[in-house]
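Q: Okay, next protein. This is DUF2806 domain-containing protein from Thalassolituus maritimus. I've checked the sequence twice, so it should be correct. Can you predict the 3D structure?
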Amino acid sequence: MSIHVAEDVLSQDVQEPSDRDVDDDWLYFWRDYEGKVSAEELQELWGRVLAGEVKNPGTYSVRTLDFLKVLSREEAELISKAAQFVIDGRIFRGKDEFLEESGLILPQMLHLQDIGVLSGLESLGFKATYTSIKPDCFYLGLVASNRILLIEGEDTNKEAEAEVYLVTSIGREVLKLASFKVNEGYLKSVAKDYVKKGFKVSVADWTWVSDREGRYSNRIEITDNA
């Protein structure tokens, strides 16, 4: 089944595939691990892994394959729930009402940390400090799956800060496998936090056109009342 899932994913992908070949050692590990999976949901997961690696070799490390081989169906479902709250590789703190509505209360979040997907749950978390990508004004885009948060301001030296939980390197690779859309209420709540800090903030649809580039459309400005 995993092979069929990979074929289906690749047939629907609009991005151009890489001209590089999948590493033979990686493919050996994939075949060995995938062959021991029986649950249908996990077979689909392994199919997505293969599709991602075929499309862009090096996307999933052998270390991530080791992680996935011991992943339970319940843990995979938990990761899928968390995926809808990831913005630029982070989950923003102070949004418990949105997480709890999706069944992500503290024990579940701590478990995601225990298995190596998140970090920063045991303390006050981390502070993310964002700077402008333009020299003449503040401009920044934070991608959240199918959406993007656009933050703008006149002062290019201004910093946009937020308290966050970090998604680990393995977590980032695993989250690429989840088929999800960002939680819209949560995204707009994060946007409003930056509005209150004096930034002009918009949200828009986001489409990847390559592994490093994308484009946005249907941009909507966020205000305190929006």
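A: Here is a summary of the prediction. The chain has a mean pLDDT of 87. The longest strand covers residues 200-208.
Q: Noted. On to the next one.
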